[in-house]
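User:
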Amino acid sequence: MTFSRFFQYRAARHLLGWGLVLSFFGFLMQLTKSEYVSMFGLRYSVVLVSVLAAAIYAHYWLLTHLLERRRYALYVVSTLAVVLVGTVVLSLVTQVHKLNLVHIDTSADEAQPASLLVGVAESAANVAFALIMATVARYVRRGIISHFQMQQLRALQLETELSLLKAQVNQHFLFNTLNNL
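Assistant: Predicted structure:
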């Protein structure tokens, strides 16, 4: 199997991408030796990436089946449901301050319910941030692919016009030569 053929398989590309995301988290843990990052271990990274990946793929499905079919109200409600489910799962899986990419600092003298509310807000911010970044990446990729397809169509059109002009010139040359004879 050639290297270029490897990237034709979507699942392999996605596994490689998520592996790179986990590697990035590992790199951050090694680079920064702070207490907050040291709690951000591999187990927590895997849970975070798994929840965010599930939310991103669910959102991709919503983009394809609802937004692109112009079912805007259902898309908004479904996207809010994906964010809510992702928030609940992130909040319930483990302690929120060990999981999140976005961390909101609170003072130690606040009550436990406020701390829980901040944790839920962090989880929602993480899910929403992941969905926004994945959507931007998807539409940037689509724009690049569309640009290359337009370039190919223009090149094909120019090639067709050139062959048509060549065919017309050849016919006129033959007709003029026969007239002269």
